Each structure stands twice: as structure tokens, then as C-alpha cells.
Amino acid sequence: MIFRQLIDKTSSTYTYLIADKQSKEAILIDPVLEQLERDLALLKELELTLVYTLETHLHADHITSGGLLRQKIGSKTVVASKCGAECADRFVEHHDVITIGSLSIQVRRTPGHTSGCISYILKHNKQTYAFTGDALMIRGCGRTDFQGGSAETLYQSVHEQLFTLPNETIVYPGHNYKGVLSSTIVEEKRHNPRLRLENTKEMFIEIMKNLKLSPPKKLAQALPANQNCGIIRTKTEKSPKDITDYDAYRIIDVREKSEFDGPLGHIPKSELVPLATIRETAQSWNRNQPLLLVCRSGFRSNVACELLKEMSFIDVTNLIGGMISWNQLDEKEQN
Predict the structure, then answer these.
(1) Does one domain contain both 179 and 273?
(2) Which residue of 198, 225, 252, 291 shows the fewest CB atoms closer than 10 Å?
(3) Shared-domain flag, residues 324 and 212
């Protein structure tokens, strides 16, 4: 096994590179946008193929590079199901297994810091490793006062899903603010001031209630970006006269077939995808390809643009005025 623990010093976020020595397949756990070039360089130096990026939760203090890595080198993004990031390639549930080469990584649901937190458990050469995100940190844990967090739920998650691991399990957290790299399950059982075994659930709830923490500095930027795998979604609007090259777009007409074949006609090379079917049909489309959405007047195509944004399409444009404006422009050019 190849293993590297990496850090983004600004957010004190740990990223973990794990790879199978034989197949050279790799994963990154919690990659950070600002460290994209570092991570790409390391993968190249070690001659590794990045198969997956794994998120432990929807982060509020940094932006993931999972989406950009997918664009650049074709890796797939993995998140917990129903965590609020519909952009991912794979949505995992409790006890799902992620495989790279001979390595198998088990998913465990550990909500509480957020409602969608998961931890990743790896067993290799008789040693167990737990990548716990913000559920269990070294002598601490993640806050529980936003993003669907719950102190009661976090206490149960740690005690039922993490403290039941072998005592010698090495704990690799999502953050550390004092430069400590790792811990073990038995250390946290004994010494974690919030979660040690002698603390009751009621004590833990009281501790968390009294933290009174300020919101994360990047909250307003990070949450919406991470809902889209770290990619900032864009939607533009253009009138027919503003578009000089229709071939630069994949043109999607969201009207009904009778309208597509009707008096207003349709733009050459456009594809008919009625609005009611676009969510299902678009599942297989390239999310990076520029799309131009068209309807009769621009209303339905605007709705389609919003749907595609939710599905993590990067570049969607609404044709203002739709086919009515397009035909008017065509008539002017003919005259």
C-alpha cells in the first residue's frame, strides 16, 4: 500500500492519498481546491491513476477539488447519499465497499457533525485505519450546531461505529489545529475530553451546547461550491443576436414534438428533449459541454437551465426570447 498524509495549512485540512502498489490505482480522501496542483504532481510522480475522490462530508471550511480532478483526469467523485451534493458519480451507503486494486475501504455512516457524515475504514496487513473526517478528531470532534448536526447523533455515531473498532485502530481525522497527525481508538476512548468513555451522552450534549463557535470563515463560499463538487456553476442568458457560433453549443430544445415540427420550426442541429424528460435524459450527458437551451419564448428553457445547474452542468445558456426571437432575427437577416 502507498500512503501519504497531506495538509492544507490554511484550513488545517488533512487529505489522504491511498494507493494499491500493484495496480497503481489510487484514491484521495477530502482533497482541497487550493492544493489541486500539488496533488496532481504527486500522482504523476508516483505514477498513480486516481480512480476516486472520497468526501467525508459536505465541508463548510474549504472547497473540495473533487470536481476539478474529475474534469482534468477522469476520477470519480464519491459522497454519502443524501448529503446534499447531487454532483457526485457515486453515492455510498452504510457498509458499502470501495475497491482499488487489492484494497477495500468500508463506508460507515457517522452523522452528527453534519447529517451526511461518513467515515472510511481500511484494513491492511492486520492493521485497521479509520479516516473519520470531522466525526472524531484528535482529542476533539466536529461542531454540531449547523448543517443538520446533532450532538446526540454524533455521540451515538462515535460510540457505535468508531469506538467499536479495534483499540489499535489508527485514527486519521479531517483536521488538526495543533500539528498532531494521528491517534488511536484507545487513546480517544481514554483521553478525548468530549467523547471519552466516562462521559455520558448527556455530558457530551452539554459540552457541545456551550461551545459557542463562530461560523466557518468560508461558509458562504464553501457550502454551495461543495454541493457542486467544488465547481462554481454558471448560467448565462443570451439573445439570438449575441450568439455568433451556434456550433459551439449542444443545442437542446425543450418544447414538445408538435412545437418542434410546428410553424416556428427549430434551430439546425438542435435536439428535442421535452422539459418533462430532461432530468432523466441528461443523466448521461457530458456535464462540461456548453449547452444552449431553447423553447418558444425562453421560459421553459430557463427552467431547464436551473434543473441542469442542480445536476452540476457547468456551462448552460438560456436563449432569451426562444424561437420567437430567433425567427425574428432570421427574418431581419433575410430582409
Answers:
(1) no
(2) 198
(3) no
Task: Render 302-327 in DSSP notation, one character per residue.
Answer: HHHHHHHHHTT-SEEEEETTHHHHHH
**Total count of domains within the chain:** 2
pLDDT confidence of residue 279:
92
pLDDT of residue 210: 94
Contact in structure between 224 and 234 (CB atoms under 8 Å): no
Task: Report the CATH number at residue 255.
Answer: 3.40.250.10
| Same domain, yes or no: 9 and 119 | yes
pTM: 0.74
- Domain limits at 22? 2-226
Taking the chain (335 residues) in consecutive chunks of 10 residues, what is each chunk's mean pLDDT?
Answer: 96 97 98 95 98 96 94 95 89 97 98 96 97 98 94 98 98 95 98 97 96 87 89 80 93 97 96 95 90 95 88 88 90 52
* Cβ pair 150, 112 in contact under 8 A: yes
DSSP state of 43: H
Are 203 and 279 in a shared domain? Answer: no
Residue 198 burial class via C-beta count within 10 angstroms: exposed 0-12, middle 13-18, buried 19 and up: exposed
